[in-house]
Amino acid sequence: MRTPLIAANWKMNKTTVETENFIRSFLPLIKGTTGVDIIIAPPFTSLLSAAILIRATGVRLAAQNVFYEEKGAFTGEVSPVMLLDTGCSFVIIGHSERRQYFSETDEIVNKKIRTVRKNGLEVILCIGESLKEREDNKTFEVLDRQLSGSLDNITLDGITIAYEPIWAIGTGKTATPGQANEAHSFIRKWLDKKYGDIACKTRILYGGSVTPENVDSLMAEPEVDGALVGGASLKPDSFAKIVTGATKK
Ligand code: PEP
């Protein structure tokens, strides 16, 4: 079956010292925890400090973004080769904040996934609808469009999907477990239609105001394989509670 996966997306938070303090407090809290994969995605500037401290633990490192070229004249960008060099094994691609504030389209997301996979990093692909799209009954249409564009000519190995309804990100409004499972089921069927049997191995995470209080009920849903956690991943004890909550699956 699919091992639960809990990923922390710190967004633009934490200096290197704050990152180190977090990891030093967090690791003892999850000592001996098994049956769940754990990922931390600090900002670029903290990746190396995090990599050094989590080496020899089961915790894996992710970047929050990447560029789709391997090197060259792209001032300010970071390539998959550089992320590998820093100790990352995952990259979050297509987060709604990147789509909203940095005009990232499904075409750009697709180019990023291609280069990242070519370089052997795994991908957490974020998709999800806005409140207006949900109210207009367009959720499945949006998910279909984002999946088709992002996964064009991409094989499914090394891909995790994060369903993150935009209206639930950082708002304190969580999708109900039923709403999450319904969207995840749609995604699973979509993957199954495109890729066949291998789709049952793909992890589909839920993201949007996940907390220690609601993680159990979300994880109880059959199609929820884990969580991408923003705000509640910034404190070691709250993130550790979410991680241990996910082991009950
Ligand atoms: C996120 O940033 O991916 C996220 C889900 O944030 P939050 O948990 O704060 O809603």
Describe this entry's structure for a reader:
The protein is an alpha/beta fold. It has a single domain, classed as TIM Barrel (Alpha-Beta Barrel), CATH 3.20.20.70. It is built from ten helices and eight strands. It has helices at residues 16-29, 47-54, 80-86, 96-101, 106-118, 131-135, 139-150, 177-195, 215-219, 236-246; strands at residues 5-9, 37-41, 60-63, 90-93, 122-127, 159-163, 204-207, 226-229. Strands 1-2-3-4-5-6-7-8 form an eight-stranded parallel beta barrel, surrounded by five helices. Strand 2, helix 2 and strand 3 (60-63) form a beta-alpha-beta unit. Helix 1 (16-29) runs parallel beside helix 2 and helix 1 crosses helix 10. The mean pLDDT is 96. Bound molecules: phosphoenolpyruvate. The site of phosphoenolpyruvate has 14 residues, from strand 8.
